[in-house]
Structures are given as C-alpha cells and as structure tokens.
Amino acid sequence: MQQTYFMIKPEIVAAGDQKIGAILAMVNAAGFRIVDLALRSLDRAPVEEFYTEHRDKPFFADLVAYIVSGPVIAIRLERDDAIRRLRELIGATDPREAAAGTVRFLYGRSLQNNAVHASAVAEDAERELQIVFGG
Q1: Partner residues linked to 73 by β-bridges
Q2: Where are the domains of the chain?
Q3: Of 44, 113, 119, 120, whose CA is between 20 and 30 Å from 131?
Q4: Cα–Cα distance between 52 and 35 in angstroms, integer?
Q5: Rounded to an integer, what distance in angstroms lies between the CA atom of residue 17 and that of residue 108?
Q6: CA 118 – CA 93 distance, rounded (Å)
Q7: Is 117 an annotated catalytic residue?
Q8: Residue 17: which residues within 8 A CB-CB, separation 6 or more?
Q9: Among 9, 19, 76, 117, which one carries the catalytic annotation?
Q10: pLDDT single digits (tens) 8-62
Q11: Using CA of residue 54, residue 60, residue 65, residue 70, what is the dihedral sign?
Q12: Contact 4, 118 (CB under 8 A)
C-alpha cells in the first residue's frame, strides 16, 4: 500500500461543495482510501518549502501567492501504486493537454489554476505529506 499527497487548490475550494464533492467522488471511485483530510489555510513559508523545486523559476512567486490566497483541502490518500494512479486520474498539469475525463480536464482553468496538486514521485509524496500533515 502506498500513500500520496493530494491537494484541492484554492479556486476549487472557493467554488464550493459541488466541485469538491465531484473531485472526491472521482478519487473514491478510482479506489483510493482517504487516510487524512483537512481544510487548511497554508502559510507562505511551508508553501515555499513545498514548491522548493520551482524556487528559481519565474512563476515561483505567483505560484506561492496563489496557493496562500485561500484555503485548500489537503488529503493523504492510500492505495496500491497510489502516486502513478493519482497522476493518471488528475491528468496533465496544463488542463488544455489533460485527457478527457481527468480532474484537470474537467475542473482546471489554466496552467496555474489547474484545480489540484498530486505528488509526482515517492520522495515528493513523503516530503509533502510531512510539510502539510507532520509526523
């Protein structure tokens, strides 16, 4: 069993329960078990640490500002091959390139406002879960 981190981003949380519920239903239907779920307003320092691999990129400041702009839903998910399967479920980072029926195809608006985040590899999942949930 593998755990991974999944985040529903601020624009979806602001849109309300219907979109949140639809995304969580997709995750549930794909066989994931929700181990931990929390509505969080993240501070700038942990978000900067969270996105540290993008620190030297021109979009870093905008990305951090966007994530701290409102509450997110932080979720610890579990299932066999969780990281790969969640990445398939959410689709390409750019919603215009995401496969039909994926979370980002359905709910993403742009490269930055792409509805959700999912850990890319096991090391990221471990680090991200530690930053958001601790222990």
Answers
A1: 8, 39
A2: 2-133
A3: 113
A4: 25
A5: 16
A6: 10
A7: yes
A8: none
A9: 117
A10: 999 999 998 899 999 999 999 999 999 999 999 989 988 898 888 889 999 899 9
A11: negative
A12: yes
Look up the CATH architecture of domain 2-133: 2-Layer Sandwich (3.30)
Question: How is residue 97 written in tokens?
Answer: 């390139």
* Strand, helix or coil for residue 44: helix
Give me Rg for the CA atoms of the chain.
Answer: 14
Compute φ and ψ for 85, nearest 5 degrees. Answer: -65, -35
b/e for 59-77, b at 16 or more Cβ within 10 A? eeeebbebbbeebbbbbbb
Residue with tokens 């610890």: 76
- pLDDT interval class at 5 (50, 70, 90): very high
